[in-house]
Task: structure prediction
Amino acid sequence: MNKKLLLETIQGIETGCKVHEDTIFGYAFASDLMSDVLRTDAENMILVTGLCNLQTIRTAEMADIKCVILGRGKKATEDMIELACENEIAIVESPFSVFRICSELSRNGIKYLY
Amino acid sequence: MLRLEFHITGGNFNSAGEASSSLKKTLKQLGVNSCVIKRTVVAVYEAEVNIVAHAYEGTITAEIDQQSIRITVCDRGPGISDIDLAMQAGFSTASQRVREMGFGAGMGLPNIKNNSDNFSISSTPGIGTTLQITNLIENYETENCA
Result:
């Protein structure tokens, strides 16, 4: 899934650093538990979460995740955006629930990990 | 050999992960295999969060040479009275605040062990806890982490 389809599918709005135009996402993982996220191992994976704090971005950094979708209309804080940009992590805000985001991503070809 | 040392303050969630981030940048600069970097920083990040979540303060020391990365995590805190129980996935004594930060579900120590080639833990209740983590750099010759 490319950036354009990703944003359309979930009514996503990029905040801070942008998703690289040539990135193709293959997998997504949804969790509010960061230790679970740290157990994942897939390239070009999207993290879908309702957890909106600095540790969300730190976890993405450690897990080599380059795109974080915040569900339920959550807004990234300034310090989250700053840390994300330092690590070339894109934050996408969506008004949809985490469940609906996953459903829409799956319907458009994004695979699950487990 | 390169030696790095980080001081961690308990309870300071805003800075939790800074040591792990700094270590990750150093390992990248050294050209360490990306799989080894990820395993190491995941283990160290979980350990760093544990210090912030449970201890008063602690230090993370990393010793890096061509063969391995040796991490020592030493905290001053309440310690762990039953290590076997603490190592069980799902067991946690974390506060509500820690859970709100996305941690505290009892996966930290198992994650650290799973991402270490060699792992040991010792603890004295009322004094603190020490972790030893060693990851071998030469374990991975390709970009395939499996």
